[in-house]
Structures are given as structure tokens and as C-alpha cells.
Write a structure and sequence with these properties.
Layout lengths: L1 E5 L6 E11 L3 H12 L5 E5 L4 E5 L5 E6 L5 E8 L3 H12 L5 E3 L19 H8 L8 E3 L1 H6 L8 H19 L8 H8 L5 E2 L4 H6 L5 E4 L2 E4 L2 E7 L2 E10 L4 E8 L9
Parallel strand pairs: 8-14
Antiparallel strand pairs: 1-2, 2-6, 2-7, 3-4, 4-5, 5-6, 9-12, 10-11, 12-13, 13-14
Helix pairs in contact: 3-5
């Protein structure tokens, strides 16, 4: 089936072909069978404990996602952009040929009701509540500078902000499982977590001339938030700079507010 979903990098709507299968194997067994049946190069596969899935990345942005199901079975999803139709068709055919695999229909996702916008209060109450929740407490932490700025930060897309912090919590939990993302950091945040506006590194100008804009202090130590995500609400923006710190087993947010300075200001 074809679905319109939100692109994690830009926030724009993209169209994906998504097909689902039920297989009579555990998740690990399904991985073995699928890898043996694909007959196409695999860029990488990764076990993601936070979402309890195995994620397989293929060329042309085609991916296979394997989830444990009831009764020792597993569910296999094949996702692909429409411009990868030929490879997508081959992958679907090869998986469907596996003994015992059954193709299943995916229900249309329900449309979310529009939520009323709150008045122009700062994001501080919402951020404080979210970061103290059981899912995020200890996994996502604010540096001293970010805490001090919260009262003066105004952004009205509460759902986007909640999603961002939830995604950071999921990333921290995954990294805490000693799962080295290596060169796949971009893929993990953009494709797997679907994080809006994610950028892996600061520019040379940002680091050299405006590093203090993106640096935060936590328990007396300073950290540079090289990773960042930018959210948009019309002309209003919210930029979160962050870094994973193993000794705290958490993602530290060094800056949360409007854009810092860039090469345009130099």
C-alpha cells in the first residue's frame, strides 16, 4: 500500500510504499531467512532495542523492518520510496517466496485531530514536565545555559517539541545499550527516528567563531552540542543542540532556543 508520511529531515510529506508480512519465525530467525532471500546488497542491518526491531537498510532507501510478534512469529515490513519501485518489487517477491510467509494488509492510519494552540507562554512548563517523565528522566538532560534560557523561549508546536524530546530519549536508550552507530548516525536519526531537521555536525564557522552559542555546562564540565534539530512554526524556529555523553548515560541538550549564529553572521 502507499502511505503519505512525514519526512524526518524536512518535516515535509513523502510517499512510501509499505508492505507487511507475517512469518513463522522469531525475530532473529526472520533476519537470517530474509538476508538469505534478498539477493540484493545490504548496506547495513542493526538491532534497535528501543523499538524492539531489526532494521535492514538496502540501496535506494529501501528498508526492511522486523518485529517480534505473538506466538514466536515475526512481522516484516518493507518500506520504499516510489522511485525505487523495481527494487521494492524484487524485495517483496523474494520475501513472499519464503516458506510460511503470508502477506497481510496494513490498516490506514487514523488522522490525528488538530490540537488547539496554547497561548504565548514559554516552553519551560512543557519541557520540565516531559524531562521529568519516567521515559525521559535521566536520559535527556539540560545544560545550565539551556535551563536559564527556557523562560524566554516561545514555540507553539507542542507535539513537535514532545516528539523531539521523545526521540532524544529513544536515542539515549539505544546508545546506552552499547550500540555503536558509527557512520550510521545520520541514518539512525533521520531514517529510523524520523527526527525533523536533523544535522550531524556544526559548520567550521559555527565551531570556530560561535562555539560558545552551542556549548553548555553540566556538573562543571563543558560540552559542545554538535548534533542539532531545527523545528519550524511559520517564521518561528526552535533549535536543539545536543550531544550523547557516555559517562552520564544521557543526551545533554546544550542549547534550546532560536538559531545560534552561523556563517551568515560572520
Amino acid at each position: 500500500m502507499v502511505f503519505n508520511i512525514e519526512d524526518g529531515a524536512t518535516g515535509a510529506s513523502i510517499t512510501l510504499s509499505i508492505n507487511a508480512f507475517i512469518a513463522p519465525w522469531t525475530k532473529a530467525e526472520a533476519l537470517e531467512h530474509v538476508l538469505g532471500a534478498l539477493h540484493t546488497p545490504v548496506e547495513f542491518h542493526i538491532d534497535l532495542p528501543e523499538t524492539a526491531e531489526i532494521y535492514i537498510q538496502l540501496p535506494r532507501r529501501v528498508c526492511v523492518r522486523i518485529f517480534e510478534s505473538v506466538g514466536g512469529h515475526s512481522t516484516i515490513y518493507v518500506e520504499a520510496p516510489l522511485d525505487a519501485n523495481q527494487l521494492n518489487g524484487q524485495v517483496i517477491t523474494n520475501i513472499q517466496r519464503l516458506p510460511g510467509v503470508t502477506r497481510v494488509k496494513i490498516a490506514e492510519p487514523k488522522k490525528r485531530k488538530a490540537t488547539p494552540r496554547r497561548e504565548s507562554a514559554s516552553i519551560k512548563p512543557l519541557v520540565t514536565t516531559l524531562l521529568s517523565s519516567p521515559d525521559l528522566s535521566g536520559k535527556v538532560l539540560l545544560c545550565d545555559e539551556a535551563v536559564k534560557r527556557l523562560d524566554g523561549v516561545f514555540f507553539h508546536r507542542d507535539e513537535d517539541l514532545k516528539n523531539l524530546l521523545t526521540q532524544l530519549g529513544a536515542a539515549a536508550k539505544t546508545l546506552n545499550e552499547d550500540l555503536a552507530l558509527g557512520s550510521d548516525v545520520n541514518t539512525f536519526f533521520k531514517t529510523k527516528l524520523r527526527m525533523k531537521g536533523f544535522t550531524r555536525f556544526l559548520s567550521d564557522t559555527q565551531t570556530t567563531h560561535y562555539g560558545e552559542d552551542y556549548t553548555g555546562t553540566f556538573q562543571g564540565a563543558t560540552y559542545l552540542g554538535e548534533c542539532h534539530s531545527t523545528l519550524f512554526d511559520g517564521t518561528n524556529t526552535l533549535s536543539a543542540h545536543f550531544v550523547y555523553v557516555p559517562e552520564h548515560r544521557a543526551i545533554l541538550i546544550t542549547r534550546l532556543g532560536t538559531h545560534g549564529r552561523t556563517h551568515h553572521d560572520h
